[in-house]
Write a structure and sequence with these properties.
about 450 residues, alpha+beta, three-stranded mixed sheet, globular, disordered N terminus
């Protein structure tokens, strides 16, 4: 069985003593951009004797949110279980009344990697070739209208409008608002390519260029854990930084059901054409897969030696993909502060691995604040560093149906988007396929940085 790279992580407790902050958010932002990434054997297991961030300054608590005082209690898993039904109901209403838009896939195909065995899902959404329109009720066809029609339009109640300066700030469109969770708000994604795609945004503005706080991640984990379905799993993802695929500056985590409901005919609700564009054979392969999130099939390769949950693992992929397994004991899952600390420790371990790779990286790598993608499921927390937002390696055509592929967290989870059948065809012909795309927009695997740092190494 192939082994995975393992980097031991530091814990938050070692950095958690109360002391005056010695670094400002601006200084920490500059520090984030000061090191760089390179290449390594993907199947070595490494145990480091110290934490990377033990020797570099940490951000103040108010900036990173790790040790901030609890604003209020987080909702429990039991309290969050009705959320799925609320999302479905609100999705149906929003689609019916033109406040949200679902763009169906023309085709959904699978590409299995010969090297890793990951079953990548590729969907073609022609609507991505066009710029999304505003609320259908506000469209104007440009034709002159008679005064009678004007009077009728004037008598209709006006639709609620989104905040134009910040779409994730009040006033919220009622049909897009699902739930208010104290310092976080749950909203439907206005433009969906998979059914029931929803967001969790911070009530106050916080920057998407900075990592989410452990409180936010703990709440996201509870939402993912509260999802009760035999056929799907809830995946949370976060695009952090300029080349991560983020589309809005206001901090937001996103949630989708995996496999997407329109892939397997899972009753996605209004606006969904169940199973359209996918062959029966491919649908059966997805349904028969033991993992709902394609890239998490690699988690089964991690050696189970009783210490796997205390380590950071690098998945055997042609780019950096760090993961930490999640299995908090019941007592920790129920305690807000303990869950925040648990998730925070895991996240800091992943950032340790990313910073280590940057510090012993290739000088050719771009400087600046790092961009990365975060995936969060019931099983694991992932961090994937990024080098660029778009893949430019497909041959462009004059009709504009084949162009650059924009990659965000979902691509690294195993769900790729193309805008036309022609683009999907070119991706299928690309040597290296999906993993070539992700390696190009990601960061090359690192050399054995523990050797370079003079730390002990153990190969399996």
């Amino acid at each position: 069985m192939a082994a995975t790279t393992r980097l031991a992580s530091g814990t938050l407790s070692s950095f958690g003593r109360s002391r005056p902050s010695t670094i400002s958010p601006r200084q920490f932002s500059r520090h984030l951009g000061s090191a760089c990434p390179t290449r390594s054997p993907a199947l070595a297991r490494v145990r480091a004797s110290r934490s990377i961030l033990g020797s570099v300054p940490l951000p103040p608590s108010r900036f990173f949110g790790i040790f901030s005082a609890m604003v209020s209690a987080l909702p429990t898993e039991a309290e969050l279980r009705p959320l799925a039904a609320k999302v479905k109901k609100q999705f149906d209403v929003a689609i019916a009344e033109g406040d949200a838009f679902f763009y169906p896939s023309e085709a959904i195909t699978l590409q299995e990697s010969t090297d890793t065995g990951v079953l990548w899902q590729i969907r073609t959404v022609p609507a991505l070739l066009k710029k999304p329109k505003a609320n259908a009720s506000s469209e104007v066809d440009g034709k002159a209208e008679d005064s009678t029609k004007d009077e009728k339009e004037d008598s209709k109640p006006k639709k609620a409008e989104q905040n134009k300066s910040d779409v994730f700030a009040p006033p919220y469109v009622p049909n897009l608002l699902v739930e208010e969770l104290d310092d976080h708000i749950v909203l439907l994604n206005k433009f969906c390519v998979v059914p029931q795609h929803f967001l969790m945004v911070t009530r106050e503005f916080e920057s998407q260029d900075l990592p989410p706080s452990p409180r936010t991640l703990a709440l996201a984990y509870r939402i993912a854990s509260s999802h009760r379905s035999e056929s799907t799993e809830l995946l949370a993802f976060y695009n952090c930084g300029q080349v991560s695929g983020a589309s809005q500056p206001h901090r937001h985590l996103q949630f989708v059901q995996c496999p997407p409901l329109d892939t397997v005919g899972g009753g996605g609700g209004r606006g969904q054409e169940e199973g359209k564009g996918i062959s029966e054979e491919d649908r059966d392969r997805i349904l028969d897969s033991p993992t709902k999130i394609p890239v998490e099939s690699l988690l089964d390769r991690i050696e189970r030696d009783g210490k796997e949950e205390d380590a950071i693992h690098a998945l055997p992929l042609p780019y950096q993909h760090f993961v930490s397994l999640l299995a908090p004991p019941p007592a920790i899952k129920k305690n807000d502060q303990e869950l925040e600390k648990y998730i925070g420790n895991k996240f800091m371990g992943l950032l340790d691995a990313m910073f280590r790779a940057r510090m012993f990286g290739d000088a050719k790598s771009k400087a600046g604040r790092p961009s990365f993608n975060i995936l969060l499921s019931k099983r694991a927390l992932h961090v994937i560093p990024r080098s660029q937002e778009e893949f430019e390696g497909l041959p462009h055509d004059q009709a504009g149906k084949v162009g650059n592929l924009s990659i965000n967290s979902l691509g690294y989870a195993g769900f790729m988007l193309t805008r036309s059948l022609e683009e999907q065809s070119e991706l299928a012909k690309l040597e290296g396929g999906v993993e070539k795309v992700l390696a190009t927009t990601g960061v090359a695997p690192v050399e054995d940085v523990t050797i370079q740092a003079g730390l002990p190494t153990h190969h399996v």
